[in-house]
Fold this sequence. Notes:
By secondary structure, the protein is an all-alpha fold. Helices cover 86% and strands 0% of the residues. The chain starts with a helix and ends with a helix.
Amino acid sequence: MLLTDIRQESMVKRIEDIVSILMEEDPLFKEDLNYSEMVAHLAEVFEKALSFEEFNSISEESLKNRCSSIMAVRLLAKIGEDFTPEQMAIFEDVIKRK
């Protein structure tokens, strides 16, 4: 069980470092996403999708790209939260056309 805790901490630390970098590089991430929630979400995503060994074998650049993509999707999901029904209909219409 201790090894599992150590592995968990190692994974979370690596994700924390990447999220910190991404939030510094992209002000939208920093302004609109909660750091702690994002780290927890990413840790959950990677735990479900990859073994510890697979996660550790991901290069820093690849991990950064994966985290950035997931964070961008989370940010996009937040955009619609403040839309009125009319704005949402316009947004959906534009998405359908593309």
